[in-house]
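dumping the sequnces here before i forget
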Amino acid sequence: MIHRLSGPERKASILSAAQGLFARKGLHGVSVDEIARAANVSPAIIYRHFDSKQTLYTAVLEKFAGQRQSYVDTVVNHGTNFEDVLAGMTWVYIENIAKNPDILRIELHSLLEGNPATLAFFQNRWKSFTDYIEFGLNETLPYNIPHREITILSAGLMFQGMVREALIQKCLQPQDRLVDVSLHELSYELVTLFLRSIGINKTHLSRKATIAG
Amino acid sequence: MSDFDSELDASGLNCPLPILRAKKAISALDAGQTLRIIATDPGSVKDFEAFCKQTGNELKSSGEEDGKFVFLIQKAA
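..and the predicted 3d for all of it:
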């Protein structure tokens, strides 16, 4: 007997098929016909649930927004120490991307496509890190270092670049040399390397914070 | 006279900064005193609910004013 999907089930199934295709080919590389074939429905059924391909794409992003990471546990469990909170946040983020690498794939496509709304969506996800680093360094860096402001801004961007590149290597190219490195090790090493580069001794970093989230 | 003891403006900040700054501000309060927090991150609504649940502080109110999110938290005894 064939099980007929309910409306919400059908909508979720279309969303899931669209997510996979957008992740592989980007917004502009996918047609509604292709999504319909992947979801095993007619294009008319797609339009019954979503006005347009753009609406469907936005719905995929909204699904990601609903899965937004919360760093509340990190702050509650690891105090307010800059290094430990950063380590906890990094672990939460890395674990989340490893579970759903489509988020990273769609982010990379969006960088090439240059849609301002989509770019803002992904930049906002990284803002947790860049803002946190900016605030943390503003409080800790001596005021007399040269180019203080640009140093702080660059540090946030450097960390974003490090983490994103490591995730690309780890999650999207599993044949790469990071295949034997666990997510915990990767998270820990990224944070300690970053802290060392900005002059913070890594012995301050609690290993617990890198694995407990 | 205001109906809170301290205020924190976390406008423009994303998680975890509003929570982190609220935690620091609450630690400076006495038990029973209240902190008013203003935030713009829509995720802060769920974040402050979770924060209060985990810390035992009471979320006295949570609402929107002029497009911003406003929370009132009372420090636990």
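The interface with chain B takes residues 68-76, 80, 85, 89, 124, 127-128, 131-132, 135 of chain A (CB under 8 Å).
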